[in-house]
Amino acid sequence: MTDDVVRGVFQVVDSFDPDEFALLLTEDATLVFGNAEPLAGREAIVAGLRAFYSTIGGLRHRIVRSWQVDADVIAETEVTYRRLDGKDTSVVAVSIWRTRDDGLITDYRIFVDLAPVYAA
Description:
Layout: H1 3-14, H2 18-22, E1 25-33, E2 39-40, H3 42-53, E3 58-69, E4 72-82, E5 88-99, E6 105-112, H4 115-118
Parallel strand pairs: 1-6
Antiparallel strand pairs: 1-2, 3-4, 4-5, 5-6
């Protein structure tokens, strides 16, 4: 997987458009965000992203490094979240996703501690 593909995935995530993100997914994809319950299927993932996006003002990813192992991509990122109070908070995250031969994502996992984003 090229760096351009990894950058492209995060550009879509940072676009704040769940419907655009859904275009990267298989119909039966799963998404697990932190320790939240897994979301299964495009519709559930879009609904979950809409709910999450309503709790923040925006986000942007800076890719620290990425690896590909067979069909799995691992990306270490620094994510800057715009809080609803207008302040920016950065945290480290790791995303892991698996793709099919056609490039669509079947499983996407995000490992991050969001406590600083929601801290008073």
